[in-house]
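Worked example

This section walks through a single chain of length 624. The input is the sequence exactly as stored; nothing has been trimmed or padded.
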Amino acid sequence: MLSAAPLRRLRSLLSPLLLLAALSLLAQPAAAQTLRIVSALAAPGAGPTFPADAPAKSVTLPDDWSRSRPGEAGPVWYRVGFRAPATPDEELTALYIERVCTNLEVYLNGQLVHSGGRMREPLTNNCGQPQLVTLPAALIAPALNTLDIKVAGEPLARVGSRWRAGGLSVLELGPQSMLLHRQARQHTFAVALPQALSATLLLMGSFMFVLGTINRRETHLAYFGALSVLWSALEARLWLRTVPVDHAVAEFLLCSLLAFITLTAVQFLLRYAQHRSRFADRLLPLQCALMPASLVLAGPERLHLLTTLWSLVLGLQVGAAAIYYLRAQWRSHSRSSWVMAATLGTLALAGLVEFISQQLGGSPMPAQAARLVAPLMFVVVGLRLVQQHGRALQEAELGRAHLEERVREATAEIERNFRQLAELRVEQITERERKRIAADLHDDLGAKLLTIVHTSDDQRISTLAREALEEMRLSVRGLTGRAVRLADALGDWRAEVVNRLAQAGIQAEWQAPEDLTQMLSARAFVQTTRILREATSNIIKHSGGSHAAVTCSVADGDFKLVVQDDGDGIKIENDGRLDRGHGMATMKNRAKQLQGQCLVESAPGRGTVIRLTIPLDRALEASP
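Given that input, the structure is written out below as tokens.
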């Protein structure tokens, strides 16, 4: 008769085998020629084999560690027994694992047949990656087979999301060709599609961030671009399955992103509603520092609890900003209010579904589908924002073209009237026509240009309108026919030239005599102003210099103006074409109309000198 000690040893050896045989009988056929395994023996252990001495217990698959072992970390071994499934000739048998978190190794009858990567820190992240393991036919016994799966994962307390806690899904055995299609479908839904949306958000968000940064009036584009880029960073672990940092650091970085995502989302909604809150400008950046600090102080063992509390607070902030935006859109009777309301409602519903799915557990499919909604909605909103920006840009271009046409028509009308008045030589008619044109320009076109300057949202149109307004005022001044004191004209020219050069970063030097008593006709003042403006524009746009000097003098009855820069000068190949470039022909023609001359001196690398000479007696007698 056997003693009590050998009997206990024999019972301890036979009990797992009997339980394993019972579990093999519970394997359910999922489809033709496949076995669905819903139960397994589970035992914690970090060794290279199933821990025979550790207490093993039967668990139901899927085994979610956040519920079955919320405070325990891996690794955990799972053992199942199965009989070789019937497969067609020359068809390999495969094991399909829909979900494992975080990583696994698969042993068949004691032999390693599959490894998902690193099983020690930093762990390879295979959460959400469906696994298909081919079982070598040479290792499959015709009778009972043992399948051991070693899972390395994290407890619920150390992860920000319940879906990133350790666990193992239902196992399925069958022909490789049949299970390959299921694995491909799940990979497309859980990995490939989120990766595609993440890449789209990254590219689109980067473009919109740059676009919003350049256009200061459209900062909502910059915030939405930053939101898209940060959201794509949440899916970074789909691309980087092995990161060079420990799991605790990776989880801390992912959870800290939530505060920055909230900042960009709230600021986007407020700026899109054309509202800027100083309170939000100060609170949100402070919150981005406060949340990571609180996670560090709480430690990794309270990461899940603190992240859940922060998620509720951050979600309320985004919800309040969304309500404010919809209220502002409703008050302004915007046509896009219904579209944005539907989009924000869909995002809120998706977030609620994911939150409930995490709390209730069960199938991860609803949460996976909900996680796809947010990036998809971001792509839709981004495309709409780009469309709106393009439409606004197109309208601005049309307005600019219309404005240019109006300016050309007004200029043409001025020139026609000027030629007619010069030919008539009738002082009374000339004076009357001058006053009429000046009044029309000032009251009609001037008022409209001024309105455009103060109301246009497009900086380019506003700048063009301001330039057109200045040109119109100069033309009106010329039409008045009043002579100008040369000293006053020099003061106006100096203010304009020095200011333009300073704005372009060019040092300006101005030299002119004081207490000049000579007079200039209105036309001479206008033409000289335009010549000086053209010379200044050439220095800014073409010279490449950093210093410019303007010298004015009166000698022998002539007014002389010299403009010199230290730029690159005019290239040799362009030397014979001075009159056809940089407005030189126009400048010379204007000087010729005043019975003067405009000379250009330039050499490569030695700058350019423009010498303007106008007879003061002719300039005073010239008709405007």
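What to look for: Residues 260 and 288 are 6 Å apart (CA to CA).
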